[in-house]
Design goal:
111 residues, mainly beta, four-stranded antiparallel sheet
Length: 111
């Protein structure tokens, strides 16, 4: 299993980012995918999850309405669209599947 995140960076409060996670080494279309994040000094937390077909999504309660998880099974890629970003969204964002993690991508929200 290999998961490679991209798309992080520095963004001003209120801005948007779209993260991508390219997956390989397993049959992507058969598995649920998740995004997690870990802020400095805090535990890793679940951000969003999407079922194998993309038919069902779940979000951390605090993020509903701002974040959207999607997937493209033809491209073996899962995405996380983040809108109206806040400084407290600053964290390393990780893609996860099959008990495996990517290396993470840093998102920093600051003016």
């Amino acid at each position: 299993v290999q998961l490679v995140e991209s798309g992080g960076g520095l963004v001003q409060p209120g801005g948007s980012l779209k993260l991508s996670c390219a997956a390989s080494g397993f049959t992507f279309s058969r598995y649920d995918m998740s995004w997690y994040r870990q802020a400095p000094g805090k535990e890793r937390e679940l951000v969003a999850r999407i079922t194998s077909t993309g038919g069902t999504t779940n979000y951390a309660d605090s993020l509903k309405g701002r974040f959207t998880i999607t997937r493209d099974n033809a491209k073996n890629t899962v995405y996380l669209r983040m809108n109206r970003l806040k400084p407290e969204d600053t964290a390393v964002y990780y893609c996860a599947a099959l008990a495996s993690w990517g290396q993470g991508t840093q998102v920093t929200v600051s003016s």
